[in-house]
Amino acid sequence: AQKITQTQPGMFVQEKEAVTLDCTYDTSDPSYGLFWYKQPSSGEMIFLIYQGSYDQQNATEGRYSLNFQKARKSANLVISASQLGDSAMYFCAMREGRGNTGKLIFGQGTTLQVKP
Amino acid sequence: DSGVTQTPKHLITATGQRVTLRCSPRSGDLSVYWYQQSLDQGLQFLIQYYNGEERAKGNILERFSAQQFPDLHSELNLSSLELGDSALYFCASSHGDGANQPQHFGDGTRLSIL
User: Fold this and answer.
1) Which residue of B lies nearest to A48 if distances are taken between CA atoms?
2) b/e B78-99 (16+ beta carbons within 10 angstroms → b)
């Protein structure tokens, strides 16, 4: 069964340092997409970055990059040069390519706190 | 701003009542998804519509129903409300429904059942 695991309930990072948020996934579908979302305390869900299962290179979007290790089934989010505004809950999610269903399966999330 | 509009932002009602949550997808997006976020269950997929047709169902209760209209906006109807239905309900949209399509979320409707 498809599953997303985020093993870090909470993380702290010093402002301007880099931080890695872990995500492992499980699927038998060779075609899938991996996504990271940010949820600030105000509640909205903000799309950050996407990685496709067939992508050869790790995805990057500004200060966000995805460390994709397919053989280990991991898709860790790296935030460089952390800012106070990065304090939020971060969710890893997966979407399988088969079955014509677009549903996202989410992990339990990691709360990140950036210290000044 | 994701471009997905959800109304109302907050809803407070009593057990046994019925409510309707509304969602307008981003311009050009054909797929609409509904998710429920609660403390005990996390983020759960409820239902997906694509261009007016139901595409997939998740853990949606029989007391809940949804539809997508010709103008592509969608409504989620929750009836016979129970205390456990208190949650943040998100609508999301994407252009298609392939695995490479990011879903863009609205700000959510926070439903409180008293």
Assistant:
1) B102
2) beebeeebbbbbbbbbbeebeb
